[in-house]
Design a protein that fits this description.
three-stranded antiparallel sheet, 34% helix, elongated, alpha+beta
Amino acid sequence: MDRHSIPHRRSGGGSVNAHLRKALALAAAGVPVLPLRAGKLPFGNCTRCAGNACGGRPTMKSAGTCTCASICHGWAAATTHAPTLISSLWAGAWQQAQAVAYHPAGAGLTVLDLDNANAVDWARKTLPVTRIVPTTRGEHWIYLGAMRSANAVRPGVDIKSSMSYARWLGPGTGTMTALPDAVRALVVKKPSPVRPVTAPMPAGGGQCRHRTPIYLERGIAMAEQRIAAAAGGVHATVYRTFLAVLSAHGRCGCLTDTHAERLFAAAQTRGESVRHCSDAWSNARTALGM
């Protein structure tokens, strides 16, 4: 069975067998599944993993080190392996299960979770039509293609794909279409708008080491380039750059608000907030005893 031909069979009622049958049908279609307890939540840790002693399964915030095969780690426990689904390891979960969930990215899918009428209206006006599944408060729009998951990408809009799970609410209607760039773009972090700032300038009075104005200008330009070229760890790069600039140019009074605003602007184009810029600047001054 093609994994994108999600079964149209529905099982009524809330019995254990109904949830398990539904899970097995999805698994046979190549859709990794897991049981959900009350509150649409995955089951809690098993004894081996209590207190996260195992190091945890991978999540959106942590790589994790657990290799446990149990169902205790949410989306990471989703499986298409029928013997695992019906094993004694899963038996207790199916006895308590209130619903079935699936890992969208594991099936090569992305679920756009539209949580209210306004979000649904936005999608209908903005995005290509695809498979649509009604939910309690809105709709799930299901696209072919996986991507990074993210919550609150717009008011009432979540994206469930990699490292996430979605509740199985039925096959829906319509034909699944390819994941559009407009949905992928929702999780791309846009640079913060550069806002005017007033950075506290060091008091002057120290001996000026600037042989010419070009020396200071070159230092600021190099600092801007260093921030712009940061491949990772932007927070740390911004702090170290501020520290270097203040160490070289901050004690004689030649460093002005205009210079600081240029550095803050460079940091903000890399996604730093004004508050973080101010904190990094202040911390650098404190570290230098200024």
